[in-house]
Amino acid sequence: MPDLLLDVRGLETQFKTPDGIVHAVNGVSFGLKEGETLGVVGESGCGKSVTMHSVLGLIPSPPGKVTAGEAFFFGQDLLKMTREEIRHVRGAQISMIFQDPMTSLNPVLTIGRQLQDPLMLHTGMTKNQALERAAELLGLVGIPNAKDRLNDYPHQYSGGMRQRVMIAMALSCSPQILIADEPTTALDVTIQAQIVELVKRLREELGMSIVWITHDLGVVAGIAQRVLVMYGGYIIEEASVNDLFANPSHPYTLGLLGSLPRVDEAEHGKLFSIEGHPPVLYQKPTACPFAPRCKWAMERCWKENPALEPISNEHRVACWVDTKTGRSR
């Protein structure tokens, strides 16, 4: 599709371990439009973070390796770039906020220095220009007395403020795409809500596209326009956020939504839980990876892995069973 800002096709990533090769990402394809917020959800180990790290050349090699796929950004395949070429894209045109603000900042460098360096590297600013811009960025993300806080060290900031600094760093070079890898996981609920609102406001002001990686469907409902659900290294459902919540069609998505507490239910029963364990990916699945945990599983599910197929306009699902009728599609 020509209107895609980022177009990822057939991405596969593996990790070599003492116990064997882990097939972490298995042929993932998706697109990101200009100005869109794309939610990527799934439980730990499903491949959502590895997918985005692969696109940005952040997979440590060894033990990791991108073994197949393409990732087009402005006509260039990010996966074929040299380390130097991808370094100029990363941070400048595509930025990433990492999961833990407590460990993402260098403890022995001032906040100002850590904001200055990418500005000087990617935009050619002088030290004084970068310092001025750093103060503007801290103000933009809601840190009071921004200019006075530039000489502070990370330990002088709270967890929420550190995450705001990480967002400021990610936005410093005005990227077209911001990838947020579970940026609120290590924060308390009140600060989580503030960070989500901050990112929504910045998206509207700056017009950037966002990929929001999370296991929290509640956050996705509040920030995303479109959602990818991942399981076992595959995308197993893709839909607009409204359609996903109104018409979930994969058994795994139904399980995720069923496990959310709801305040609008008259009767308070037990939360739904998905029985079993995530797959161990030492072998690339040849059958549906969710079959061992699925109450709708039939004979075909144990023999063939379903492709991601459209079931309505902009809604795709990888499942042999129609969960509304319990019959084969």
Polypeptide structure, described:
The protein has 329 residues and is α/β, with parallel strands linked by helices. It has 11 helices and 14 strands. The protein has helices spanning 48-55, 83-89, 101-104, 111-123, 127-140, 146-149, 159-171, 189-206, 217-223, 241-246, 251-258, and strands spanning 4-17, 20-33, 37-41, 64-73, 76-77, 94-97, 177-181, 209-214, 226-231, 234-240, 309-312, 315-317, 321-322, 327-328. The strands form 3 sheets. Strands 6-7-8-3-9-10-12-11 form an 8-stranded mixed sheet, with helices on both faces. The radius of gyration is 21 Å and the shape is globular. The two termini are 27 Å apart.
Concise account of the structure shown:
The protein has 329 residues and is of the alpha/beta class. The chain is 31% helix and 26% strand. The strands form 3 sheets. An 8-stranded mixed sheet has the order 6-7-8-3-9-10-12-11, with helices on both faces.
